[in-house]
Amino acid sequence: RLKPRSDAVIRPDFKFEDMGVGGLDKEFTQIFRRAFASRIFPPQVISKLGISHVKGLLLYGPPGTGKTLIARKIGNMLNAKEPKIVNGPEILSKYVGSSEENIRNLFKDAEQEYKAKGDESSLHIIIFDELDSVFKQRGSRGDGTGVGDNVVNQLLAKMDGVDQLNNILVIGMTNRKDLIDNALLRPGRFEVQVEIKLPDEHGRLQILEIQTKKMRDNGMIGKDVDLKELAGMTKNFSGAEIEGLVKSASSFAINKTVNIGQGKTNLNTKDIENLRVNRQDFLNALNEVVPAFGVSEEDLK
Ligand code: ATP
Fold first, then answer.
1. Can you tell me the distance from the alpha carbon of 166 to that of 234, in angstroms, rounded to the nearest whole number?
2. Pairing of strands 192-195, 124-129
3. Choosing a second label site near 194 at 20 to 30 A (CA), which of 37, 181, 208, 263?
4. What confidence score (pLDDT) does residue 148 get?
5. Whole-angstrom Cα distance, residue 39 to residue 52?
6. Cβ(175) to ligand 1 under 6 A?
């Protein structure tokens, strides 16, 4: 008889709202349905459907939009081993065969456990940042070494080769999906691909709420600050740039108190108590933090 899995794959106390990721609810729900939901059911049921678990998830989109943040949160959400986090270029070695060896090593623990237990009960996660820097279209490198090609082949072999592993999930991240070898994007490999775009106004509001939570909880934000207004003024800002904006506003607020260069760096208690980040500090910050994707005259209307 089929029983529910005794080992919870998803942490039972997990809630979307605790993720600290703003504006990506839709993307997250999609990732969850497409990449993880099947892992909650017993493997026998999944095989009756004629499907297998997703082993590769690709998050792609502009820099600073929260891809790494989501990948880490997924790691926390799943009852998995501490994720292995690798930056693409770290894998590459100038020594013959070493890069492939590095890839094999990443999968070693998962493999050994799979062999020993013969099931998928404990999940191993590998998070691969800057995937495009290593897994470029084979033959596109033009350096004649073929090292990159071997690395692509090695990852393909590990993801869906002869010795298939059901206890592994590889999360890849890239700003340039177009550069990645097509073979890696096919079913069985990085088959679930989700675009993480720049946040819209509602998303920006959520990110502003997350990034100012501490200062709001501690009463350090001025009453004149309207996060909705700021969400409207930060078109084309990524989550990372919103984080930068909040930092910059804080620095303006602090500097107002100390007035660097004005012969007043000795604070008194009042100065400390009066520290607030006000609307004007955010306006100053908006002049300082320029989004990489630019703001056109049209956007400011
Ligand atoms: P890259 O492509 O450059 O690696 P990324 O998409 O992986 O960028 P992150 O490293 O996840 O971006 O984001 C950097 C930081 O910006 C995060 O640690 C977080 O503080 C903030 N941030 C980005 N996006 C969000 C978001 N959607 N919600 C809350 N914070 C965010």
1. 43
2. unpaired
3. 208
4. 66
5. 9
6. yes
Q: What is the pTM of this model?
A: 0.87
Pocket test for ligand 1, best of 26, 31, 57, 68 (most atoms within 8 A of CB): 68
Evaluate: CB of 66 within 6 angstroms of ligand 1: yes
Encode pLDDT of 194-221 as tens digits. 999 999 999 999 999 999 999 999 999 9
Residues 256 and 284 sit within 8 Å (Cβ to Cβ) = no
Of 185 and 135, more confident? 185
Residue type, 247: K
The CA angle 175-14-119, to the nearest 5 degrees, is: 80
Query: CA quadruple 205, 207, 213, 219: dihedral positive or negative?
Result: negative
C-alpha span between 152 and 181 (Å, rounded): 8
* Residues 54 and 168 sit within 8 Å (Cβ to Cβ): no
Give the Cα separation of 134 and 128 in Å (integer): 10
Taking the centre of ligand 1 as the mean of its atom positions, its distance from the CA of residue 89, in whole angstroms, is: 20
Residues near 157 by beta carbon (within 8 Å), at least 6 away in sequence: none
Q: Whose CA is nearest to atom 16 of ligand 1?
A: 240
Query: Would you state the pLDDT for residue 273?
Result: 86
Kindly state if the Cβ of 23 falls inside 6 Å of ligand 1.
Answer: yes
Q: Where are the beta strands (DSSP E) in the chain?
A: 56-60, 84-87, 124-129, 168-174, 192-195
Residue 243, ligand 1, Cβ within 6 A: yes
187 CB contacts (<8 Å, ≥6 apart)?
Answer: none
ipTM of the complex: 0.97
User: Is there an atom of ligand 1 within 6 Å of 109 CB?
Assistant: no
Instruction: Determine the 3-state secondary structure of 300 from DSSP.
Output: helix
Angle subtended at Cα 43 by Cα 39 and Cα 45, rounded to the nearest 5 degrees: 105
